[in-house]
Amino acid sequence: MIGGGLAGPEAALQAARAGCDVTLYEMRPHRSTEAHQTSDFAELVCSNSLKSESENTAPWLLKQEMRAAGCVLLAEADACAVPAGHALAVDRVEFSRRVAERIANEPNITVVREEVTTLQENDPETLTVLATGPLTSPALTAELQRLTGADHLSFYDSIAPVVDATTINMDRVYFAARWDKGSADYINCPFTREEYDTFYNALVAAHEVEAHAWERLDYFEGCLPIEEIARRGKDTLRFGCMKPVGLRDPRTGQTPYAVVQLRCENLRADSYNLVGFQNHLKFADQAHVLRLIPGLENATFLRYGQIHRNTYINSPTLLTETLQLRAHPSILIAGQLSGVEGYTESIAGGMLAGRFAATLACGEQPTPAPRLSAHGSLVHYITHAEAKRFQPANVTFDLLPPLEEDLRRQIRDKKERHRLQCERGLQAWQHWLANRSSVRTPVHGGTLLPA
């Protein structure tokens, strides 16, 4: 297993639990990346959220499937959750610590701290799971390009700012969850129209970090910098990350003109991240613009927003539904490198890759995840999307097969449709798990190694 982010450790733990001997490679701390700050396993570099826990949503379905399959990293996330309304958010440091402990306590896993730069594609006794994520090193990227013979696509992903909780002016903010769903764990910074206008004008006038000549700022639509969104129209932020709908101020009984939400970063609740506020502005400009947010006038920012490179393969042309490279089936690709977007989706991809690799180590061909499930639908998308327009995807109901036409005509309520899709997906997933429950002893010692 190559990569110590989210997908790699999950894949390693899954294969090790199935009886395989696993070597887990991670290049940090000897070589770091543009976004990581530590050499810890499962470091969360952007948000600390693993998405909605609201029943019968697409992220909930994916996580319910992961829990049913014994996903290790999700279990650790549940164990160190911090208040976040109806979302699952974790204490970053505690989460990484717990994942590292699970790896250290697994006798079938050996950790090697060095950079892998070559891949061996024709050794039938060697299985490789490549889970190096969006910041795959240039040398390994070049090696992967050599193997695939295809051009890589790349876009730029973003990191949201984090504020010191003790520097928030609590007299100007209030706690609430949108539509009162879940507990009121988000700090909401309400804007009047005049305050929003001042903030907007400062934002669009702020100076961006200059791109290098070799950089192509091809942003992912699902994670645009706030200044990029703002340029699309004065009200775009008010219909996006600053949407006030469902966030009535309990002190006034009124809905603000716009709102910035702050989400707790850790169990101590001593820091909060600005939800959806990833940006590509110079730090001095960020300090000025962000302190125009009501309640953050004197804020201390523990981290400013940043942009980092994100690399992924053109999976529709390269990958099978068991995450194997078509031309080199002993190499599996997992996590964001495969074209899934998001922490939860990356862990899910690692879980599948680890299970598929363990099956291959037994001398058997793995069975793809069922199409009706969230896992199967996510993999189906990355392996069957239009190659020329392929972009990474989060799990959504759009990826799942729709209900039969007669049911769609009978059931007009979208929530009920989603409930039935979730019910159908969980049944298919449970059936798949039951048919794959007995894993034999791996052949060739079951060692999963890069060349």
Summarize the structure.
This protein has 451 residues and is of the alpha+beta class. It is 31% helix and 14% strand. It has two domains: 7-152 and 313-446, FAD/NAD(P)-binding domain (3-Layer(bba) Sandwich); 159-308, Elongation Factor Tu (Ef-tu), domain 3 (Beta Barrel), CATH 2.40.30.
Task: Give me the secondary-structure topology.
Elements: H1 7-17, E1 22-25, E2 49-52, H2 58-68, H3 72-79, E3 81-82, E4 87-90, H4 92-104, E5 109-112, E6 128-130, H5 138-148, E7 153-159, E8 162-164, E9 174-175, E10 187-191, H6 193-205, H7 226-230, E11 258-264, E12 271-274, H8 283-290, E13 301-303, E14 306-312, H9 315-318, E15 331-333, H10 343-361, H11 374-384, H12 405-410, H13 414-435
Parallel strand pairs: 1-5, 6-15
Antiparallel strand pairs: 2-4, 3-4, 7-14, 8-12, 8-13, 9-10, 10-11, 11-12
Helix pairs in contact: 1-10, 2-10, 2-13, 3-4
Give the helices and strands as they follow along the chain.
Answer: HEEHHEEHEEHEEEEHHEEHEEHEHHHH
> Which range best describes the helical content: under 10%, 10-25%, 25-40%, 40-55%, 55-70% or over 70%?
25-40%
What's the total count of β strands? 15
CATH class of the largest domain: Alpha Beta
Low-confidence blocks of residues: 444-451
Q: CATH H-level name of the largest domain... which superfamily?
A: FAD/NAD(P)-binding domain
Order of strands side by side in the largest beta sheet? 9-10-11-12-8-13
Mean pLDDT over all positions? 88
Give the name of the CATH architecture of the largest domain: 3-Layer(bba) Sandwich
The largest sheet, given as strand count, sense and whether it forms a barrel, is: 6 strands, antiparallel
Number of domains: 2
